[in-house]
Design goal:
The chain is an alpha/beta fold. It folds into three domains: about 90 residues, Arc Repressor Mutant, subunit A (Orthogonal Bundle), CATH 1.10.10; about 220 residues, Type I PLP-dependent aspartate aminotransferase-like (Major domain) (Aspartate Aminotransferase, domain 2), CATH 3.40.640; about 35 residues. Helix 12 links the parallel strand 8 and strand 9.
């Protein structure tokens, strides 16, 4: 209990530090909240010495009066300063600027340019090689003939919107199954069995974020750094770069009108690779289809040499002339083929839904690795697409899409023949 007269005790309680005279300038129209602006202004004042280490900041009541701000705004700004280590709250006393805050933490100006004399900043050798040799994988501009575009279908868009409304309640959502929603996996298994002759069960199928994640997952599990991998030449660039990032030694085999030249696997002294990556149904980017004799030769070679095959069947839904040749996976009798597909070409690229079918004895391995890359695929999109497939909308959607794409192909072929037919020869693709 103080023995000072009451009037002196009041003067003692009202005494404030020099920071009480500080006047921040805030802009109510700025995108940042007032609390965020106040935090930044106070931090800048600490950096330039207007508010010194150890000083007490104005109480929220006094600051509200002096700075014409709500006490909640001031308290929020102080909380940020405390959380980031610029100030400390002392119970019953107030909020104080720390005395040992490093000067570099208080600097608010532009960061210095990192010069040659700075400490070495390293990245992996595989990334360095990708940046120096590989093509850019930045999204392509929407230009004529660019790959990856989707034809918009109003009926499908309306159906997807209606189905999405069923699954908008996230109140009880948790992590989903590592392999994906069981209903979607079952629907995909039924679809690829009927359309591509793929032989698998839902337990063998993993839902992925498009084909690219499926390829990355397969390459990580099956390829060790330094392993030799055979690819088509030319090859789908993201697949080649994914292999490079995983440390593979990449060997290209040429492509002709019958697909990749499998005969060169046994010609010369090429040692058997750990893995072979192919796009047999529509070679990227030439459009050739791997012939049945070559498919059988490739499977026999993989079986005899213990090689894995990754079959990228990225747009098998779009074939216009004749019957599609069965998938490699469907012809495989030795469980050496991993099969991947996607909904990016047939539905929407933004859904980011693909799938990977693995041999039964590898399911346990892939389940162990998958959570380290991605805890689980997004359940919302999966449930929407599962309903779309299970309720029978997908075949009709594909028929409409094929008709539109066939018409586009035929129009282009006719225009080429009309305008430059005397100067250019081409083969009309059987696929989009």
């Amino acid at each position: 209990m103080s023995h000072l007269p009451p009037n002196q005790r009041r003067l003692t309680r009202r005494r404030e530090s020099p920071s009480a005279g500080f006047q921040p300038r805030l802009d109510p129209a700025a995108p940042a909240s007032l609390a965020r602006q106040l935090y930044l202004v106070l931090r800048e004042a600490m950096a330039d010495g207007r508010i010194r280490p150890g000083q007490r900041l104005p109480s929220s009541r006094l600051a509200a009066q002096e700075w014409v701000l709500s006490r909640g705004t001031i308290a929020e700004a102080y909380d940020i300063l405390i959380a980031e280590g610029y100030a400390i709250a002392r119970h019953g006393s107030g909020t104080y600027v720390l005395t040992d805050t490093p000067a570099e933490r208080l600097e608010t100006g532009p960061r210095p340019i990192v010069g040659e004399s700075s400490a070495r900043r390293t990245i992996s050798r595989s990334v360095t090689g990708m940046l120096s040799r590989g093509p850019s994988l930045e999204p392509q501009k929407l230009l004529p003939f660019v790959t990856g575009r989707m034809a918009h279908d109003e009926r499908t868009a309306s159906l997807l919107n209606r189905l999405a409304g069923r699954h908008m309640n996230y109140a009880f959502e948790g992590y989903g199954d590592i392999q994906g929603e069981p209903d979607l996996r079952a629907a995909i298994v039924a679809h690829v069995a009927a359309s591509r002759g793929v032989r698998c069960t839902p337990e063998q199928l993993f839902i992925t974020a498009g084909t690219q994640q499926a390829l990355d997952l397969a390459f990580r599990v099956l390829v060790s750094p330094g392993d030799r991998v055979v690819v088509e030449d030319p090859c789908y660039p993201p697949a080649r770069q994914c292999l490079a990032l995983n440390g593979a030694e990449i060997v290209g085999l040429p492509v002709d009108q019958a697909g990749v030249v499998v005969e060169q696997l046994t010609a010369g002294d090429l040692p058997p690779p750990a893995l072979i990556y192919v796009t047999p149904s529509n070679q990227y980017p030439s459009g050739s289809v791997l012939s049945l004799p070559r498919r059988l030769d490739l499977l026999a070679y993989a079986r005899a040499n213990g090689c894995w095959i990754v079959e990228d069947d990225y747009d098998s839904e779009f074939r216009y002339d004749g019957h599609a040749i069965a998938s490699l996976q469907g012809l495989d009798q030795a469980d050496r083929v991993l099969y991947t597909g996607t909904f990016s070409k047939a539905l929407l690229p933004s859904l980011r839904l693909g799938y990977l079918v693995v041999p039964p004895d590898l399911v346990r391995v892939f389940r162990a690795v998958r959570p380290a890359l991605d805890r689980c695929p997004p359940t919302f999109q999966q449930r929407v697409v599962a309903d779309f497939l299970q309720e029978g909308y997908y075949p009709a959607h594909l028929r409409r899409l094929r008709e539109r794409l066939r018409a586009s192909r035929d129009m282009l072929a006719a225009l080429l023949q009309e305008r430059i037919g005397d100067h250019l020869r081409w083969s009309c693709p059987t696929k989009a």
